[in-house]
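Issue 218. Parser rejects a valid record. Input:
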Amino acid sequence: MLVDLARQILAGEPIDLAMGAVSVIWQGDANAMTLHSLAHTACPPFVVNVAGPETLTVRHTCEQLGELLGKKPVFSGSEGPDALLSNGQLGYQLFGRPRVPAKQLLVWIASWVNSGGPLLDKPTKFQVRDGKF
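Output the parser choked on:
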């Protein structure tokens, strides 16, 4: 979803603030936690959330990305009263905390998107609140 935001900022597209908060995790950390969880397979299933430890506001995150991209973000709407966030505490206890903090992800993503790095062009639609994608 950080790539989605960076692309919108660069394109000057308004960023919908309805989903006011998010958590993010580097794909490498998510993959590592997923692989470690294979040792815990069970019936009934073992359930663990793979999620980033930090709760970020979309507005502040976009402002930080905008600084890194050299472009001021445009916002629309207002922050919703709630957000669907996963609690990754069990995963951190079992497998350790993610190695890459959100601040580093912002730097990496801003650099990648700003330099025209290849993307999959698969928007996350994180801002959708009604479950209809």
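Fixed in the parser; the record now loads. The chain has one domain: 2-114.
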